[in-house]
Amino acid sequence: MSGPVEPAVEVRDVHRVFSTNRGAVTALEAASLSVAPGEFVSLIGPSGCGKSTLLRLIADLDEPTSGTISVFGRTARQARKEQAYGIAFQQAGLLPWRSVRANIELPLQLHGAAAPARGRRVDELLDMVGLAEFADSFPDQLSGGMQQRVAIARSLAESPRLLLMDEPFGALDEMTRERMQNELVRICADTGAAVVFVTHSIPEAVFLSDRVFVMSARPGRIKDVLPIRLGAAEERGENLREETAFYAAITAVRESLHGTGVATLRGVETR
Ligand code: ADP
Ligand code: MG
């Protein structure tokens, strides 16, 4: 393909002001970001800095007060109608009366895919998230980590080129969380999906991301963008967490969050 590559997400000078009974709250001020196809971007910052607001705007679950948003060159509204992305939030949000298989199948069913094709796709997804044996289980028979894997499988059902994830591992214990991060890196490498990932965990953002957008609260702003170059997804294994470069990148993000020593630690590189 020739010509300029269309960004997966383009946010330009977006403001979001909420009017509340205690006056106007500027949740987001002059936010701009561009996410390339296949790129993994994290939004990190303290509670209330506007991370969820920004993600909801991209997903067209809310509208900006001013500024523009496009998803693969379309408006956020068009992109939502065309189901150009998958969404996973902190709560797995599974339907308790449907089996694992039926939960993953739901978006395909809603959008009219034929039964045999649906079945094949669900089998593929169950393998991808390592839950083939649990296809006929129900959500309340699964651990939190397994439920979250079902939710991720569901968000991947229609092979989206973009995933929007809001603290999807926030409710998990530390070990499960790291395993899910490893899986997400692998899944993204396999599918080539771009990801906008909200977290308040620095190690999580560093492990997963190509770039980390650091936000500050009141008013919510993107105050820094840190390129994290810790190797291609395929080579980012469990031992990365022990490497000096991993700690250096964590330090860079932490210093940016706390507003000290940022300039010296841009673009940590290893390989
Ligand atoms: P984060 O996800 O980073 O914790 P949010 O995006 O949820 O932060 O919220 C950013 C700010 O906007 C907070 O001050 C929050 O109280 C406010 N806010 C978010 N949604 C609404 C809403 N629907 N009405 C009023 N204020 C809101
Ligand atoms: Mg939030």
Give descriptors for this structure.
11 strands; binds adenosine-5'-diphosphate; binds magnesium ion; alpha/beta; 8 helices; 7-stranded mixed β-sheet; 4-stranded antiparallel β-sheet; 26% strand; 271 residues; Rossmann fold; disordered C terminus
Question: What is the fold's blueprint, element by element?
Answer:
Blueprint: E1 9-20, E2 23-35, E3 40-44, H1 51-58, E4 66-71, E5 74-75, H2 76-81, E6 85-89, H3 100-110, H4 115-128, H5 144-156, E7 162-166, H6 174-191, E8 194-199, H7 202-208, E9 211-216, E10 221-229, H8 244-258, E11 268-269
Parallel strand pairs: 3-8, 3-9, 6-7, 7-8, 10-11
Antiparallel strand pairs: 1-2, 1-4, 4-5, 9-10
Helix pairs in contact: 3-4, 3-5, 4-5, 7-8
Bound molecules: adenosine-5'-diphosphate and magnesium ion (MG).
The CATH class name of the largest domain reads: Alpha Beta
Total domains, how many? Answer: 2
> Which class do the helix and strand fractions yield?
alpha/beta
Relevant CATH superfamily of the largest domain: P-loop containing nucleotide triphosphate hydrolases
Number of helices: 8
CATH fold title of the largest domain: Rossmann fold
What is the oligomeric state here? single chain
Q: Classify the beta-strand content into a percent band.
A: 25-35%
What's the mean pLDDT score? 89
Task: Give an account of the 3D structure.
Helix 3 (100-110) packs across helix 4, helix 3 (100-110) packs parallel to helix 5 (144-156) and helix 7 (202-208) crosses helix 8 (244-258). The longest helix has 18 residues, at 174-191. The chain folds into two domains: 9-84 and 160-265, Rossmann fold; 95-159, no CATH class. The strands form two sheets. It has a seven-stranded mixed sheet with strand order 6-7-8-3-9-10-11, sandwiched between helices. It has a four-stranded antiparallel sheet with strand order 2-1-4-5. The chain has helices at 51-58, 76-81, 100-110, 115-128, 144-156, 174-191, 202-208, 244-258, and strands at residues 9-20, 23-35, 40-44, 66-71, 74-75, 85-89, 162-166, 194-199, 211-216, 221-229, 268-269. With 271 residues, it is of the alpha/beta class. Adenosine-5'-diphosphate binds next to strand 1, strand 2 and helix 1.
